[in-house]
Amino acid sequence: xxxxxxxxxxxxxxxxxxxxxxxxxxxxxxxxxxxxxxxxxxxxxxxxxxxxxxxxxxxxxxxxxxxxxxxxxxxxxxxxxxxxxxxxxxxxxxxxxxxxxxxxxxxxxxxxxxxxxxxxxxxxxxxxxxxxxxxxxxxxxxxxxxxxxxxxxxxxxxxxxxxxxxxxxxxxxxxxxxxxxxxxxxxxxxxxxxxxxxxxxxxxxxxxxx
Length: 210
Description:
Layout: H1 9-30, E1 53-54, E2 67-69, E3 75-77, E4 86-92, H2 97-113, E5 118-125, H3 130-140, E6 146-149, H4 153-157, E7 170-174, E8 180-185, H5 190-206
Parallel strand pairs: 4-5, 5-6
Antiparallel strand pairs: 1-8, 2-3, 4-7, 7-8
Helix pairs in contact: 2-5
């Protein structure tokens, strides 16, 4: 005789499977996956209570080449800023509620930090057309350009562990030597963003670029 299954075992397994599938679907749609589960992530400093990872100059990985066309149709190559300015890459979508919430703070800090050697560049993703993206930019008076990346291909150029494509918004800070200085997988408040930029601004002032 074949062993009989314990009562309730199969329904429980089916229920767990359904629950996991639902969680995975919700994670993909909302960008609420566990950021600590991504393979290849690098430990950083200054994460506790700040919402971001910062990397010491000696441990910074090179940033990839990021270039394309902005939402306004202008060519833009992030590499052109190397040796001149630190760059803040902010990945956002007009459909994204947390992006909408953090945009006013980004607009304010971007305007203030321009004179401190910091250039903001957005990457607009998963919008079907530039019209939605431009409306978002105008609504929030964003004082920086954004590359148009409807398919998410530009995001995939960023090293695994620096961002998770499921996390929108995400932010990556690139220092003046073209290395990843900090990252945030999730929305940032205005003060968090200021804290995130302090090291690269200080490096620019002191001339110590690691």
